[in-house]
Amino acid sequence: MPLHVNQPAFDERAFPGGGFGPPGFPPGGPPPSPPPGGFQPGYPSGGQLGGPPSSPPPAFIPQMLQSFTPYAVELASIRRCLYRFTHVWLDSGRSFWFYPVSIGRNFVAGWRWSRRQNRWVYWGTDIRRIYHLRCF
């Protein structure tokens, strides 16, 4: 969903309880949308288009690469990770597995793995809050 001029960017602080999606969408996030260009590696085969992956994220936690510039995450970097398991580090120091399905001018949205709930929950944030990411 593109960001409109009068629509502010959203982040996880705006989602009570850890995030179920931007206002106006039911729990579970927005309606599904197909990946650009059809099938892509890491996209859940047989699953709902735009929905969460059909399996948990990888069991390992990747190390942050040392050869990066802080706050250098750009739209192109995030776009390469669409429909792929992605480990995200936020500016707050928190890190988690994420499965991005939508990118706007200033935000990214998708499915965040909740270890506590052992399931994917819909989540989005302003891309300026992403300190580093690695996709697999």
From TrEMBL:
Residues 12-58 are annotated as: Disordered. Residues 23-38 have a biased composition (Pro residues). It comes from the Bacteria. This is Transporter. It comes from Cytobacillus depressus.
